[in-house]
Write a structure and sequence with these properties.
CATH superfamily of the largest domain: Type I PLP-dependent aspartate aminotransferase-like (Major domain)
Number of strands: 13
Helix content: 40-55%
Largest sheet: 8 strands, mixed
Strand order of the largest sheet: 3-10-9-8-7-4-5-6
Number of helices: 17
Radius of gyration: 25 Å
CATH class of the largest domain: Alpha Beta
Length: 503
Amino acid sequence: MKPQTGELFLPFTMDATSSIPLYRQLYESLRQAILTGQLQAGTRLPATRFLSERLGVSRTTVIQAFEQLFSEGYVEGRAGSGTFVASVLPDELLHLSAESAPAPRTSRQGRSLSQRGQILASASVSTVHYYSEARAFRPGIPDLTHFPFKTWARLATKHWRQPPRDYLGYSHPAGYQPLREAIADYVRTARGVHCSAEQVLVISGSQQALDLAARVLLDPADAAWMEDPGYLGAREALLGSGARLVPIPVDDEGLDVSAGIARCPDARMVYVTPSFQFPLGTTMSLARRLLLLQWASRSGAWVLEDDYDSEFRYAARPLASLQGLDTSDQVIYIGTFSKVLFPGLRLGYLIVPPDLVDAFTAARAVTDRHSPILDQVVLTDFIIQGHFARHIRLMRELYAERQAYLVEMATRHLADLLAIQPTEAGMHLVGTLPAGMQDQEVAHYAERQQLITPPLSTYSMATAPRQALLLGYTALTKQEINAGIQRLAQVLLDMPGQESTTH
């Protein structure tokens, strides 16, 4: 009997507005069809190209769903024949092994997640792409080979040798007071932030800052403007709080404030990265900054300013913060040490208006009490002894050289394959693909060559993005950049249909 083609079983649709990734939706639908017998053992699945066209999704989405099913044993490949439903399903094996096991003491009905839990569990930043090494071209990773580990170790040893009892017990939720003072001094000088040490809260990285701000300041169904395209971590934190996201387009002047006012004038919050917009790399113009602050003051909306890598500006001094222009105490300022020192430190900071200090401090205590006190003490010494400022200066020079080298190598090897322009700041560049290429599909093939090139389209909600890749360079040596560019060039040349466009 001729195997079924599977072309008749497509009772499901894809919801592009869902917080669940499209590949996961397809995986769950196919898995359910297999488990319910709608797709029987030995059934041949449709080709990935056919399925992507039929469902209106990228081929990469279908490939990712198939690979997940294959890794879990639901489907199997046969050389030259295609992909087939496995003859022995993993759930059948689980059922057989569980027959002699005692029945669970709790019914599944009492174990469902809350609505917030479902949103958090499906967050695209929760478990995806955590690599132990810096690979070309993963964005947002600082160079670690030039970090002064000996200095850090000396400072840590001094405090660990005979730590005071206060360092070993519970600490203040807002953070180690000398570190709060050091941070306040730094941001006043380097970023033009107006604050006292009492307004500084030391937290476990910028992601916790986003989560705290969303939970303290938003009620379920409150509207929040979100840069589009924008940072996934912020999107998921806002969604996790129950907020209703309103995507606002970004252009060469940053967030389009007028478009935001037209779409949702009564939004409760707006998330922005004004110094170096993530992921596009644009800088918010002064006119846009002032318009945003005027609207926020008039409407009572909160502004989350994520200043995640403002230290790395290569053409001039770092720009003054949006918070420094705020005269109505509407801006919540977020900074992090993950990008300037190392991500494993897990220390960042929030700077909040004076009347919000108590509320944020209480919320921080509920979340995880406080950050490790010894790490805060070491970081304090690192800052006040001048090591922090010296390290930033060194990294700024090093990253500028690496960006220039990336552009040079891209011009040499990717001239007709990827359009890359230098920027005055940041830790990554955006490379635009030729017409007809899909960034998610390219990124999928690049990952097979051990390259991490996040597709720009994954950061978009409603705005139709250009097809482009993000290329980080700060953690890579020149040799690694050169080798990565040449591997990427080969990936692009090998893409289906590329021969006809390059010859």
